[in-house]
Every structure is written in structure tokens, then in C-alpha cells.
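Lab meeting prep.
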Amino acid sequence: MTKEQLSKGFAYSSLACSLSFWLSGVLSGLQIGMGINIPGVTWLITMPAWTWRLLVGVGLILAIPAAVFRSKLSLVAFPLAILTFLLIEYAMSS
């Protein structure tokens, strides 16, 4: 496995962790706000807060090696991971 493949793996994993939170927010908004019932995603929306903290924390930890290995995708993955982590921390502390 080359350095480039390893850095891409870290970056894609970080993006998956961060984007899952944003996807959950969109789906929650559709189900609650607009009254659209989407079967099979209730488990995603009703995940406990500590699970989101853990998932987004892992995403941030995975973004660090991607940035260190200078992956091109880390230009998106690292800021998104930091933004999502800070948003989660703000929402959970208030």
C-alpha cells in the first residue's frame, strides 16, 4: 500500500464519519419538519448523542493523518471534520 493510497483511505474514512452526521440532520429535517416518512432510517436519526460524539471524534482523528500525508482530499476532509466536531461539542454542551 502506497502513501497516497493510505492518505486517501484516511481522508475518505474521515469524510464518511463527518458526512454521516450531516446526512442524519437532513433526513431528520425531512422526517420531522416536512412530515415525510422515510422507512429504514429511524435508527440513524435516533442515535444517542454520545454515539455522534464518538463517531465525529473518530472522523477528526482520521483526518489528521490524511492532512499529515498531504492528501488532496484532506483539504476538504480536515476542515469538515473540525467544523463537525466543534458543532457537535457546542450542541452537546448547551
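Slide two material, second protein:
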Amino acid sequence: MRIGLLADTHDRLPAVAALVARMAERSVELVLHAGDWCAPFALRPVHELSLPVVGVFGRSDGDREGLRVAAAAGLATELFESPHSLEIGGERLLLVHDLNESVERSVASHAFVVHGCTHRAEQLERDGALLVNPGEACGWLHGVPTAAVLDLTTRTVEFLRLTEPEWRV
């Protein structure tokens, strides 16, 4: 099963739309969002492609009620407080915005940990878990919008990086 990974979208709709379109091209069945949507309209690009979404709130998600309402208006969209543990395809995943020490204790009980907050795309193994940060979908801090596709079967991650013409309008 292939899962699209997003984090730190921070309202940059053209970049989010381009990244989600790339995920759809790769036949993702689900999108996980590791927080910092910022505003309810940030859900629109995912909903327009009819992809189911599971997400957590981040530090910059001020209008949580608005996000909940927007999520309820979309196809199979669920938003939770961070951290959130879930099972997909027989694998335990931990979805969290900020990978801090209190969450670190939970890493070993999950096969995959998807996190955001740092705005840096990375993957590493820790305590038998594959930790993935898809980076910043917004591209605000590092100048390049990023996301990732996680294949649960092969335990591989493909990072998606946009070039400027794909997302600047």
C-alpha cells in the first residue's frame, strides 16, 4: 500500500495541489498529514482529488474548529490531536507533528512514525521503526516544497520535490 505524506502546508495551495497531484499519479490510497495545515481551506487540494486523509493538528493550526468542519465536508477526512496512533495494512503507524521526547518513548511500538514540525525532509531508522518527515509542503523556509510517498510493503520512501514552475503562480 502506498501512502502520501504531507506536513507543514501552511496555506500554500499551489504547492500543496501540485504535491497531491504527484501523489495521485503514484496511486496513493491515503494521505497522512503531520500537522500545520494553518487554515481550513488548506484541505481543498486533497479533497479535490478525492483522496482520504488522516491528519493531526500542529502548532500553527489556530482554527481547529474550522479545520474540523472542513474535514467533515470532505471525503473520508479525519483530524486528531497529535500524537495519533493508527493501523494501516496491518502496520502500526504513529502520526505526530513534533517528534519530542514524550513521543520518543512510543517509537519502538510502531513500525512507522510520520512527523513534521522541522520543515526538513528526512528518513531514518530508530528502534526498529522507520521515521519519516516529508518536509515542508509550503516551501516557505527552505524554498522547495516537499512531500513523500511511503510504500508500506517495501518500507521505501520516495521524496517529492517541486521545481519552481510547478507551484509558483
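Talking points for slide two:
The chain has one domain: 2-167.
The chain is about 20% helix and 35% strand.
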